[in-house]
Amino acid sequence: MDTPSPASAGSDRTSADTTNDGNDLGTPATSPSSSAPTSPWADLVSQRKISAEAAEFFGDLKNYLPLGCLTFEDFTTSDRGDFGSWQDVTDLPLILGVDSTLPSLVAKLVQAGWLRVQAGRSTPDTRFFIFRMYILPGDAGHRYVDRRDSTLWKALRGLIAEVDVSPEIWQGWCPLGTKRKFDTWATCDEGSLFYMFNKLPSPSPSVDVVEEKYAHEALEDLLDPASVLPGLRTVLYPYQRRSAGLMLQLESFAQLKLDPRLEQRQAPDGSVYYYGARDLLFLRQPRYYEACRGGILAESMGLGKTVIVLSLILATKHHPPVMPPAYAPLPVREKVGKMSDMAISAINRRSLPWKIEFERIRHATGDDMTSCAAKLEQSLPMYEIPREPQRWNRRTILPPPKRMVLAATTLVVVPRNLCKQWQSEMQKHVEESALKVLVMEDLKRALPPPEELRTYDVVLFSRNRFEMEIRDGSDGQGRRISTKQSECRCPYVGATRIRDCHCVRSDDLYDSPLSHLHFKRLVIDEGHFFANHKSTAVAVANKLVKADHRWVVSGTPAKDLLGVEVDTSVADNIWHSTKESRDTVLDQRRAFSAKEDTAGAVKSLGDLATSFLKIRPWCSEGTIERKEADWDEYIYRHEDLRKRTYSGFSTCLRRTLDIVVKTQPKDVERDIELPRLTHEVVRLEPSFYDKLSANLFTLVLTANAVTSEFTDADYLFHKNSAKARYQLVSNLRQSAFFWTGFSEDDVRASVDNSSRYLAKEGTSCSAKDRQMLEEMMACADVILASSGWKAMSRSHEIGLFVDGWPGDSAQHWSFGRSCAPLLTGVSQLQDAQRHVNERASMDDPGEGLSGAGIRAIAPARHETVEEEPDVEGKRKKAEKSLLTKSGIPTSSLEGEPALKRRSSLGGKGGKSSPKKLTRAFKVTKPQKQGAPKRSLPAGLERAVAASPPTSAGVSPTAGTPQSSRKRRRSELEAIDFIFPSDSPYLRSRIIGTTSAKLSYLISQILKYYKDEKILVFYDGDNVAYYIAQMLELLHIKHEIYAKSLSAALKAEYVVRFDQEPQDRVLLMDVKQAAFGLNLSSASRIYFVNPVCRPNIEAQAIKRAHRIGQTRKVCVETLVLKGTIEEKMLERAKRMTRSEHMDAKALEDDGGVREIIQSARMLPVFKGEGEREGYEQMARLEEPQQLWGREGWRETVVGRAVVASPAGGERKRRRTVTFEDITKADENARVVDDDEETRPGVKRRVLSFVDCSNPSVVEEQDMEVDDGSDDEPMRLAVLLQEIVRRL
């Protein structure tokens, strides 16, 4: 055969094919010695359409990439000896002789230089033409090719979809059934985000990849099991060492990574190229970006993320950040510098940790290197960044460069409620002097200047304090200097030419110290909150903080993105995450979901990568790129170049997830084994009053459904009634514990409405509906006949049953007609307990008990307080009038009922707005004079009072006959008093409550609280109040972690409960349980109401079942048998994850709605015996003593310590003092001053106190400044002496 001309440019490529494939391509179709016509580029050069240089570039086939082949059958009868060799072709229509769009597409691309085509015949069957397609890569020919032509891009899209990439066809063989089309779209990465996240490999750091000396040594210390990290008290588990080591490796190892938008593909000839599907981009050479030098620490909840971060900080202590090379030139000196100056300059320029070397010298030789260290401290490592002026003109003055000082400091930003916990963790895991820590939690505290700030190893910010740094560049009024420089236009002063200038001045602007330091790293705890790129915290982090490394610390780095070990924890009885159960869950959630995987967690990860972690190419800040890559555009496989089809994930997402540090559960289990955890659903038999509450809601639902005839807007399940339905169902779920929201008028109104409907003619009411409604009306009559229910409804009290009430005062404390047993409210019982305990030393401690009972029981017997007019309430009531007409009381569509004795701090039992109930949690300052304190639970009382809690943990209450706060001798003598064994008051017992859940819960707490700490999750403030009051009545110390508490109090309560042995019970709102709290001291967990949301429940339980837990953890969920609550729980267990995701609220699920709609009445009486008191209660396992029980003395003394005036003005308080008459001294005299108390008057106290002689105790008047902070302290001293005597 003839030798091909150089213009054919096919011989080199074909020879390469022969070499690469190892086949002898000596056939006529593939012979390297084939001939070809002259190249067309010479004609274009002669016509001066392209330059000779461009013709040479286009003529060289090495500049093109093998793309694939097109095959056509030749139906002509011409001599098939033609095209026996690979020949360049430019005009396919002339060769094929067929009508097709492909020839025109190929012609356009060939003429533009985007494509080269070679033609030949198939070896086994010469009827087939094979056309090899060579494409010009996007990283070549920029000088000669115009890539802005949209018609060419359209032609290329049409062509590549038809190309066959089979190597056999490229070699000239055309066997049947071996065609493989070019995949235009991104390669699909099988799996959902949940699957990929939980299949990430465990950390496996390597010391060899870290070349920098000091980082290499620090990594060795972290990974060596025998090594003790300096300053760390805690011994790290192996998986914790590996996680911290990988974090250090990512920080220290500078590496380049392939652009995640590109994927490597193999050409038909075996060569490799890179393809960007979304941009239709072909590249010969890969495109790299610098890898992220931070990431996401996503270890599962309870596996010690905090100690991992602390170990990383300790390992890199004194390691300064790297000075940017662009701003670290060699200094130019006027004369030869000193050797010390040059050494200091080199140390600072190279960011060497000189303190580490000096410490080694000191240990080796004893030399402290004091003078050298002083010089290095004085010569701060800094660099300058040139500033661009805001505007360029003839008068522009170049602003001075900005100086940045290097600081080996780690900024840690945490939610405010976790700030105290972080401090506690540092004290637990880090030696006292190992880290210098600055805590910035106080909103009024200013940051120290940069020179001082850089001396700290850790600066711990609460998130709201961190956000306050957004003031940088503004004055006290929030004004900033405009970018447009303008003259002052302020008005003149009077008739002068002097302006009364109020313009913003640069001297008045706040200059944040953060903006002048280059930090080592920035760590964000619970960093999923930083996924919102519009948040103030993200703005501060991006605008002010310059840090080498950024880390997000969160077990849930994105919304609903949990570890599989948490999902497998949601089991019925035993929580034990095994490999088999994890694999089962992973298989169930392996497939890509177009609904779950296109929103929520994926978008949150994208926002973190873009706005906070600054991962390229998703963030273009600080680069020469014009714009950042669109996250949604590239991480999915879109099977349309214009639209987003979300057909699955591309490989781009998995390659971006390599910044996540997460250990596989199997590797954690190999290193550590947590105590066993059991979870049991306890089904309780509802009490008589539980049934009444359940039937009331059933009455409401039935009356509404029947009277509205299941249609129109007045039907509760109409689409326009969603808000009212949500509130009613929420109230229904809370009523399973206890509910007093319905009044007598509400019940009567619902009955009257139902009666009118049944009497109406022409309705479509069926016989079944009529019978059901009549049964409900009969049940309402039973409810209205219950004197106990009416009393609790009026007073909003939960009822307690007492047996053995002493004397004739029982009838004055009873809610019902019967006194055997006596039914009364918990607040009333607290008053009675306090009344007797304070008079324990009297001949008759119960003197006046009847009168006290009359006053305490009045709100329950006579509803005499009128409600204040409420314009907003009237408006809301008008909005609900439509539903009210259909049998739904307005009270059932509102929130929880306002608890009269706890909601109003200054009222006398009248109704108040529910907002006041919430407000009681928010107050964190001492109550001002003029607002008498009301009866509050112990946990709530400590939230209101500024004084320390009493040793007994029971906060006193006011509003009793003793509210004058005058302490008499007899009241203190009661401390020494012991009730006689035959005292009738010792025989009084609390035997039950009106709530089955409360009785069971209190019985469990009484059984275990002395040996174990208990965590109670509730949903609804009233539930917390009732439980807290009962615990206060039984003198059990507790705290309330409510959503309305200040963040500072929340943090304090968590630390106190976890560390203080006297704190035994923590009541926590279940909605607040998923934010990084560590409550590993608790080993018993109770859910008062079923959560019905697996993720929320799992995260709540993980607060206790985590590292640090040494006991078996027992979890119980309380449910009432046969109620709607039980059926909703069963339905929630059967719901799939997608069904949970679809239901914004649980009642949005069709199955739950059907359960609510089909609710039926519970039988109230099982027999005649249940009509009496003993059968109506939910009994406690063991009757509890009411008076004189353990801890009552501390309660009496505690009330004396924190008591405050009840009046609106400052008054003289009668206080007991002790005088030592054995050694009389003028400094020991008691001063009785009748002058009015003045602000600022100091307390007059004795110089010493002698408690050895109780006979000299006297009553004296003393001036007291109630605002003094010394009062609790001085009274506490007195209390200590009294307790010592006991």
TrEMBL record:
GO terms for biological process: DNA repair. SUPFAM superfamilies: P-loop containing nucleoside triphosphate hydrolases (SSF52540). The keyword ATP-binding applies. Residues 27-40 have a biased composition (Low complexity). Residues 833-842 have a biased composition (Basic and acidic residues). Residues 1001-1156 form the Helicase C-terminal domain. This is Helicase C-terminal domain-containing protein. It comes from Friedmanniomyces simplex. The lineage of its organism: Eukaryota, Fungi, Dikarya, Ascomycota, Pezizomycotina.
